[in-house]
Specification:
The structure holds 2 protein chains of 2 kinds. Chain A is α+β, with helices and mostly antiparallel strands. Chain A has helices at residues 9-19, 94-107, 114-121, 169-178, 187-203, 219-223, 227-232, 240-244, 288-306, 318-322, 329-336, and strands spanning 2-5, 21-28, 31-36, 62-71, 74-79, 87-92, 123-128, 153-157, 161-166, 183-184, 251-258, 261-268. Chain A folds into 2 domains: 2-203, no CATH class; 216-341, no CATH class. In chain A, strand 11 (251-258) and strand 12 (261-268) form a beta hairpin. Chain A is globular and about 65 Å long. Chain B has 12 helices and 8 strands. The N and C termini of chain B lie far apart (45 Å). Chain B has a 5-stranded mixed β-sheet with strand order 2-1-3-4-8. In chain B, strands 5-6-7 form a 3-stranded antiparallel β-sheet, with no helix packed on it. In chain B, a hairpin with a 2-residue loop joins strand 5 and strand 6 (133-138). By secondary structure, chain B is of the alpha/beta class. Chain B folds into 3 domains: 1-109 and 160-178, no CATH class; 113-150, no CATH class; 181-326, no CATH class. Chain B has helices spanning 2-18, 64-67, 80-91, 113-118, 153-156, 184-191, 194-205, 213-217, 243-257, 266-270, 278-292, 317-321; strands at residues 23-28, 37-41, 74-78, 100-105, 124-130, 133-138, 141-146, 168-170. The chains are: A alpha+beta, B alpha/beta. Chains A and B meet through helix 8, strand 11, strand 12 and helix 11 of A and strand 2, helix 8 and helix 10 of B.
Chain lengths: 342, 326
């Protein structure tokens, strides 16, 4: 294990940024989100939850896919991708890292999403262990250890130092590039922090959520449960929960006429929206209750039934914090999840 | 606030049991003290989870558009600021006054859990309101904060503690109006140079994630189909395509609610990126006050409004543009 004093972190960022793009939680106009690092940027590793998750780095909220130019009967298809410069995604929490695994199963499965794949391959992920989980966190329910996330490199942060441990080949390569800034040591500090954090994790109010009823065989029963009406009653139909969610993966593709041909782009979509999966005949989900149910059934039943039981919620708690009317997946789990929560 | 809550619950039960109303719109308990959810209660048995506390900041009036269309009368609890939105909805024929029973309730300013967290308090498990103090318990210890420091922004500049509409009232204590001037920040923005102001809004609006929470919560945004939800329009509500798109969305929205916005502050309360959207609306309110005379949307449910009626003394658009209008 290696360590570096906290006050020297800017040197570390600068060193990484010499050869690669560095995406890291940065404070802008009061809010912390992942952004590219540069001199003078206010990095905030202490922020437990960035507003948007790092999924944006692989699956951007909006991206241009291609252009079409027509001349007579010919259509030229112009690929708009630039070559992906290698970059480092720094400070990813355990829940958000698990969320990347959830996304990989969708975007890297056949047919492979080559836009996503190119970014994934170009990225080295440095994860950061949590030391101050809060009341809305429930990653442990999904078997995630917030004190020891995976990733190419794992780092721990305390009041004095950042501790660094590389886990993969990509991680070794990054370590070699920055090693001169580090000294050896830190095992004892990291172990102490892990133990202290684990104690807090056990005490978190959502630590014992029961997911036992969310199984493929209960799909119809859960779908028809009358509780959805009440659960969704106050839903505004905004997209906050889906856009702050690290695992929400739905997108829409549209063509726009521009002065310079036709532009095809994609953007995040939200099952909360009235034009989600809009087809020629209309919308398959006509009420907000149906849209609301779709989101949670997808996370807790549909996705796991297609992915060996892996839930597509990671317990990051962003929807718990950000829903304008305090609706969230925890209330759904407690109402429909199983005996423990009755 | 406890006595107010008990009385509200009692009245809700009476109204439902007597059949005077078919449903009551209020708040129900969340997972914590600080996350109550707007809720519709249709029988007295459902009232177990009824709650009213310092975190009931949500403006319930917009729920009436859906709920009051149902069979039978709907009762609703309104704080003073929510009552302005109610009148505006009646004025715009979105709801019918006679379908609704309004219970005016006491409000001493509502609290912002995010501000608690900004004070360094995390893993909050309990909050206790104690007059001017808020006692916050967390897994990392207990802290006492002054209530004024953790009020929702909209409550810091509360414009009125007078209910604009009511059928009955549950108020035990005198209500204190906001301590800050609500146009202070607008004036600061006006004093900036054009470039500074542009930079301010560009930085703020570039955080927008196009979740549309501001639009969906806004009682003035009551269009049955929003222009941004029309796939044929060439713009998409969900596509945060460029900085320009975000500015266009928010500026169009601000223009559309100009003269109708009651300044309830819900847009800024719900914004996940904490963009001070209410400042756009407040600028319009201030301009209307200056150009057409003092006007507060939602003060009454009828009468003329400055932007929808013509008088010969109306300001000339050119003079307004040149800053010469009085």
């Amino acid at each position: 294990m290696l360590k570096i004093a906290k006050e020297r972190l800017n040197e570390l960022y600068g060193k990484i940024a010499q050869t690669q793009g560095l995406f890291i939680p940065v404070k802008k106009a009061g809010e912390v989100n992942y952004a590219i690092w540069g001199e003078g940027k206010e990095v905030s590793l202490e922020t437990l939850k960035t507003v948007k998750s790092p999924k944006n780095m692989f699956f951007p909220q909006t991206e241009n896919m291609m252009k079409f130019k027509t001349e007579g009967k010919n259509i030229d298809i112009i690929d708009m991708r630039d070559e992906k410069r290698p970059y480092v995604l720094f400070g990813v929490k355990a829940c958000d890292y698990k969320a990347i695994e959830v996304l990989d199963k969708v975007f890297l499965a056949d047919p492979v999403d080559t836009f996503y794949k190119a970014r994934r391959e170009a990225t080295t992920i440095v994860t950061l262990a949590c030391s101050r989980p809060e009341e809305s966190c429930f990653c442990s329910v999904f078997g995630i250890d917030a004190t020891a996330p995976a990733g190419d490199v794992t780092v721990w942060l305390d009041n004095e130092n950042l501790y660094w441990q590389s886990n993969t080949e990509k991680g070794e390569a990054l370590t070699a590039a920055v090693k001169e800034l580090f000294t050896d040591g830190g095992e004892a500090e990291v172990e102490a922090q892990k133990a202290a954090t684990k104690e807090i994790l056990q005490k978190l109010p959502f630590a014992a959520l029961d997911l036992s009823r969310f199984k493929p065989e209960n799909l119809n029963e859960l779908f028809d449960d009358p509780a959805w009406e009440e659960l969704s009653e106050a839903c505004l139909g905004c997209g906050t929960c889906t856009f702050v969610c690290p695992t929400c993966q739905c997108f829409d593709i549209r063509d726009f006429k521009t002065n310079d041909g036709i532009l095809r782009y994609r953007c995040w979509d939200s099952c909360m929206y009235s034009d989600f999966t809009l087809m020629a005949h209309g919308n398959s989900r006509t009420t907000q209750m149906q849209r609301y149910r779709q989101r949670f059934m997808h996370k807790l039943v549909y996705y796991p039934s297609q992915n060996d039981g892996l839930y597509s919620c990671v317990g990051c708690g962003r929807c718990v914090n950000k829903c304008p009317q305090h609706l969230n997946i925890v209330k759904v789990i407690k109402t429909l999840g199983g005996k423990n929560d009755d | 606030m406890r006595e107010v809550e008990l009385k509200m619950k009692e009245r809700a039960a009476e109204l439902l049991q007597s059949g005077e109303v078919a449903r009551v719109i209020g708040w129900k308990k969340g997972e914590f003290y600080f996350d109550p959810t707007p809720a519709v209660f249709e029988s007295a048995d459902e009232l177990d989870g009824f709650v009213y506390n310092g975190f009931c900041g949500a403006n319930l009036s917009k729920y009436l558009i859906q709920q009051s269309k149902k069979e039978g009368k709907t009762a609703i609890f309104l704080k003073p600021c929510d009552s302005f939105s109610f009148n505006q909805l009646v004025k715009e024929h979105r709801i019918k006054r006679e379908d609704i029973y309004v219970i005016a309730i006491e409000c001493q300013g509502k609290l912002d859990v995010e501000k608690l967290k900004e004070k360094g308090v995390s893993a909050v498990t309990e909050v206790e309101e104690n007059g001017g103090e808020v006692v916050v318990s967390s897994l990392y210890g207990t802290v006492t904060l002054a209530k004024d420091e953790v009020l929702l922004s909209k409550c810091e500049t509360c414009k009125s503690k007078v209910h604009q509409v009511k059928d009955e009232e549950i108020v035990f204590n005198e209500m204190q109006a906001g301590k800050k001037d609500r146009f202070e920040m607008v004036e600061k923005l006006e004093a900036m140079t054009e470039a500074e102001r542009f930079a301010f809004w560009k930085e703020q609006l570039s955080k927008c994630i196009r979740c549309n929470a501001c639009r969906n919560v806004c009682p003035a945004c009551s269009c049955i189909k929003c222009v941004f939800d029309n796939p044929a329009s060439g713009v998409a509500a969900k596509a945060n395509d460029s900085e320009f798109e975000e500015q266009m969305f928010h500026i169009i929205r601000a223009f559309h609610v100009a003269g109708r916005c009651t300044d309830c502050g819900e847009c800024s309360r719900v914004c996940p990126q904490n963009i001070p959207l209410h400042l756009l609306n407040r600028k319009f309110i201030k301009d209307i006050d200056t150009l057409y005379g003092e006007y507060q949307a939602g003060e009454t449910a009828d009468g003329k409004t400055p932007l929808t009626s013509y008088t010969e003394s109306d300001a000339e658009p050119n003079d307004v543009m040149n800053g010469e209008a009085k």
